[in-house]
Design a protein that fits this description.
Distance between the termini: 53 Å
Oligomer: single chain
Largest sheet: 5 strands, mixed
Strand content: 25-35%
Number of helices: 4
Low-confidence stretches: none
């Protein structure tokens, strides 16, 4: 890719592109876990909530632009574990969402988004980065592994009888 990718904080004018990308991110979840995820009848993300995240000091909502077009988005936030007797207090960057347009994947755009988020988090005292990845999403697991993330825990689930 010869054009330069720019990563910047999301702005209200990015809302439509964020929704389009979020729908691409949600699609595999809807397909793999239809009992858990559905396609909304309206916008895939609520405008007021999205704009609130843009102004939240503990959230890094950013877009990647290529030739003036939004081609990727990440939603990250600071996760603060309190000072409990059995735990050390720690601040983490939690990658809540990350997506790049399919035709532009594996070109460094997601890495650029995450690297910018890491720099933002370091400035705020974060000591680590976390990402939750569904077991079916092996491409995401491989991506985060390539950035040095390793499994910490495994969430188990069982449906209750009716």
């Amino acid at each position: 890719m010869s054009a330069i990718v720019t990563v910047r904080r999301a702005e209200p004018g990015d809302y439509e592109a964020i929704c389009e990308l979020a729908d691409l991110m949600d699609q595999p979840q809807r397909e793999a876990l239809p009992e858990r995820f559905r396609k909304p009848s309206g916008p895939v993300r609520l405008r007021d909530r999205t704009e609130k995240l843009m102004h939240d000091p503990d959230t890094f909502l950013a877009v990647a632009e290529l030739e003036g077009r939004v081609v990727g988005v990440t939603n990250c936030g600071l996760l603060r574990m309190g000072d409990f007797p059995q735990k050390h207090p720690i601040t983490s960057l939690l990658v809540r969402g990350l997506v790049v347009r399919p035709e532009l994947r594996r070109k460094g755009i997601a890495t650029a988004l995450v690297e910018k988020a890491l720099a933002w988090a370091r400035e705020r005292g974060a000591a680590e980065v976390q990402a939750n990845v569904y077991d079916f999403n092996q491409p995401a697991a491989a991506f985060f592994s390539s950035l040095g993330l390793a499994p910490l825990s495994h969430r188990l689930i069982r449906k209750l009888d009716s």
